[in-house]
Write a structure and sequence with these properties.
The structure holds two protein chains of two kinds.
Chain A (H helix, E strand, L loop, with lengths): L14 H8 L11 H5 L10 H9 L11 H4 L5 H5 L6 H14 L9 H15 L4 H12 L9 H6 L13 H18 L1
Chain B lengths: L1 E5 L9 H13 L3 E4 L8 H5 L3 H18 L3 E3 L2 H16 L1 H11 L9 E3 H9 L1 H7 L8 E4 L9 H4 L9 H8 L3 E2 L18 H17 L4 E4 L2 H9 L1 H8 L7 E3 H8 L17 H6 L2
Parallel strand pairs in B: 1-2, 1-3, 3-4, 5-6, 5-7, 7-8
Helix pairs in contact in B: 1-13, 3-4, 3-5, 4-5, 6-7, 10-12
Classes of the chains: A mainly alpha, B alpha/beta.
Amino acid sequence: MTIRIKKDKTSPGLLRTVEKLADVDLSVCFQCKKCDSGCPVSNLTGAPPSEILRRLHLCAGNELLASDLVWMCVSCETCFVRCPMGIDIPSVIDALRGLAVEQKTPAPEGNMPLFNRVFLKTVEMFGRTYDLGMIVAHKIGTKTYMKDAEKFPGMLRKRKIALLPPRGADRKMVKRIFDSVRRAKEKQK
Amino acid sequence: MKYAYYPGCASDSTAREQHASCSAVARALGIDLTEIEGWTCCGTTPAHQTDRVLSASLPAANLARAQKMGLDVVVTCAACYSMLKMANYEVLRHPKIREHVGEALGHDYDGSVRVRHFVEVLLEDVEIDRIKKALKRSLNGLKVACYYGCLLVRPPEVNRFDNPENPVSLDRLVTAIGGESLDWPHKVECCGGALSLTRSDVVVKLSDAVLTMARAAGAECVAVACPMCQINLDLRQSDIKKETGRDHNLPIIYITQLLGLCLGISADKLGLEKLMVSPERIVQRLT
């Protein structure tokens, strides 16, 4: 990998913020690249996990949030299991995701941030996930109406996906949790 | 044997057959699964990608309910399993997170409720000998690739489920019911589940790699214990065929469905008809 750094780069970048959010010490990474070897998407991404960590060491700023691994990471935790220094890399990626949403980084291919939002919205509304509702909302948001459309008749016939929203959950508790998390976030700002 | 049962959201949608087969197997083996009343979503990937307190609080709400029941929690979904265990881990390790979770729930939760996967209950509490005694049929040497995926085994400090690189829990069950569990290298590779809807191009590549390896090992079916692995590997076979020309035609079947068949439970009670790739030829193989 070649990492280019601007000559006048003096700001510490995202390193400390990410370390704090993810509760990790990234200085222990010695670039053995075991994380890349086990990563199921490292050959599909522009920058594998070790490069993300190195860029952080080298004071990368918000430009790092546009790396495709930030949203292509499958959260499989293999890198974490195999890291000889025990770095919780999935939490680093989660921290970068949080920052990407906060900074309103342009939506990545497949728009995972939208998926997360509509998923959590159905949870907040019904107390449990409502697959069909969230799929429709994601399709509208990404204008991918025909993607996987051929699968639904068979799934519905087999009742492999629920048609109606779920019932029976303690919705008040879930609402309470979401409200509390929102309040805490606002207070931080 | 009595447990607080957390079915998880998929039990009412994409994994009804896992819920049905797990309940039927539990009944047949004298395991009492009492559903946690009013249980709510664990938040899964979208929660942990969004906020650390949210991703601990959503599972903790259910653990707190189970605590009132005074029972261990039993889970069938690997994603729920991992989220519930992670919530305990976070609350126990970080007083600050415990405090925030307490604020969110309206009461303190101490992180002490024991969380177990149904497979662990089968192996540790029921035990192989008792399962063997209850068998009515055998898999008759069926070649099974046991697939664990990610969230059952990782991260090991949190889950403490079997060996994270070479787990054998499902293999032990398959062997006990007369199947041949295959030695193959993709037991814990990821199928891409988290990207199921958003990046199916990535999912097709990852699932294809898993299924290609299973077939190379001689598998007649793949046994799973996670709804995300199941639907991904099952549903995406048509896309894999379209994009690569490889027609895997491998039934992806829940371990509880295989076990249920051998306990003499009928195919319809186990929801076998819900699988996209028909498991008919497996049922035919049984003796």
